[in-house]
Every structure is written in C-alpha cells, then in structure tokens.
Specification:
five-stranded antiparallel β-sheet; globular; alpha+beta; 148 residues; 5 helices; 2 domains; SH3 type barrels
Length: 148
C-alpha cells in the first residue's frame, strides 16, 4: 500500500475509533432498546485501547493478516463446492442487511425498494419487491426505517 493510501486508512480507522468513543451513550441507548445496553460501553472501551496503542501497532503484520484472510476467502469463493458454500454461509450469518427493508439506489435508474432476502452464488443481493425477486450486483443499499 502506498504511503498516502496507508495514511488514508489510518485516518479512517482513527475517525471510526474516535466516533465510537464519542458516541458511547448513543450506542448504549440503541442497544438498550433490544439488548442489555452495554454495547456502547464495550465498543468505546475497545476503541479507546485501539487509540491508546495506535502508534505501537505493526502495520506490516496487520496488512499481512488482512490480505491473507482476504486471499483465503477469495480462494474459497472461487473454488466452488463446499468451501464456497461455507464462505457464503459465513457472510450471510453476519450480513445485517438480509431480512430488512432496503432501497437500492442506482446511477441513472429508478430506486428499487423491497426486502433483502438473499446473497446469491455470484455475491449479488437479491431483493424481493412486490413478490418478484431480482439479483443486483451494483448499487448503494440504504436500510429503510419502518414507519411508526
């Protein structure tokens, strides 16, 4: 990664970490609606540790670990069979978009509104809009808040 690329990544990580610390109460309040309310505290403490130790983090080891993991996931997805199915299942298990009302915004095309129901074998998001399922490979996905 180039020096300026690494600086941009560091800037983003620091901004995310600081935002998590600054918004501890908000995250806790959100978690209290459906959980025990400790998410904000846990998140803030974790990101405080990241900020405290930032200068001591070996970026080389971090880059190698991230690239190794991405390479393994890519190999699994492109190999097909059980490995690909396992990688897709792992992604689906943590994908918070599935099951939610979404709006897919596309450049120079009408928005698509519906329920995100699946990630297909090609990695496309499948949206059920009025009983018709369509797979989409590109677009900005916005989670639609339910009307209260």
């Amino acid at each position: 990664m180039s020096g300026s690329g690494l600086q941009q990544v560091e800037l983003v990580v620091r901004a995310i970490a600081q935002s998590a610390v600054d918004n501890e109460k908000h995250f806790g309040d959100l978690d209290a609606v459906v959980g025990d309310g400790d998410f904000g505290y846990s998140l803030a403490r974790g990101f405080e540790k990241v900020l405290e130790g930032w200068d001591d983090i070996d970026r080389t080891d971090l880059a190698i670990a991230v690239l190794t993991h991405l390479g393994q996931a890519y190999d699994a997805l492109t190999s097909g069979g059980v490995a690909a199915a396992g990688e897709r299942a792992a992604y689906r298990a943590v994908c918070t978009t599935l099951g939610r009302q979404v709006r897919l915004q596309r450049l120079d095309a009408p928005d698509v509104v519906g329920t995100a129901v699946e990630v297909d074998e090609q990695g496309r998001l499948v949206i059920d809009g009025d009983g018709e399922r369509t797979a989409w490979a590109a677009g900005d996905v916005v989670h639609v808040r339910p009307v209260r």
